[in-house]
Amino acid sequence: MKWLWAVFIVVLSQPLNAQDSGDFWVLTHPEEPFVVMDDKGVLHGLLVDEVNGILASAGIHQKILSAPWERVEREARIKSNVLAFALTRTPEREHVYHWITPLTANMYSVYSAKQLSQPIANIEQLNTFDSIAVLENDVRHQILLKQGAKNIHVYSTWSDAIEGLASGRSSAIFFSDVGMRYYCKVQGKDCNQFHRVFLYEKTISYLTLSKNGTDTKLANKLKSAAENYKKTAKFKEITEYWLKQYETLPIPMHMEDGVLNLWIK
């Protein structure tokens, strides 16, 4: 499967108004390889098919829209009836969203272009770097802000962040093992030049529904639909199809209990 498509982001020119779309929105941000936008603006990938399957199971017919990540997170946080994916579950976000179903599990780590003489023992020690690359408003950005970090270097895409690390504009990057492997591959970079210097924690990303002004009946309906859909032959079929497509990628992954684990089984 060819992943080096010309990807572009659909930026909605007018403020989102749920009333204009049947009072319900489904938003995501393309993040390869699980959510990919082709050169015709069509979304593809395992998570796209999975969310569409959950919506169909709930009897909801709504197109998934693409927007920059910062906007996806903001709309899901402040507006009603916004379904968004994939958001990492954190204590700070716990009461902001309805957590419909887990989608992926991953390991968050900090990488440096230099091998350190002393290991990083805790997140507070990340202030020893001149600058740490993150995606704007991503959960890792929020983690560093909470720590009061002053050495944050914000990028609009992970591709730019990796390039920033490789060029020396940033001295480290707060990303994930899988993300590093994937973007090194698609950008033709040697991942061996980057060293994991700190393992933060295992995290789980979810399909979420905004809480602000959203009827809990809708949340319960979607949770039930997700649980039922993950038991179907159709869900097994799409996961097997996409895992086959992803075999050529430098990413270890396996499906367990309806969640895509991004490490060796």
Automatic annotation (TrEMBL):
Transmembrane regions listed in the UniProt entry: none
Pfam families per the UniProt record, alphabetical: SBP_bac_3 (PF00497)
Domain Solute-binding protein family 3/N-terminal: 30-244
Signal peptide residue numbers: 1-18
Source taxon at top rank: Bacteria
Keyword vocabulary terms for this entry: Signal
UniProt-recorded name of the protein: Amino acid ABC transporter periplasmic protein
Organism, as annotated: Aliiglaciecola lipolytica E3
Biological classification of the source: Bacteria, Pseudomonadati, Pseudomonadota, Gammaproteobacteria, Alteromonadales
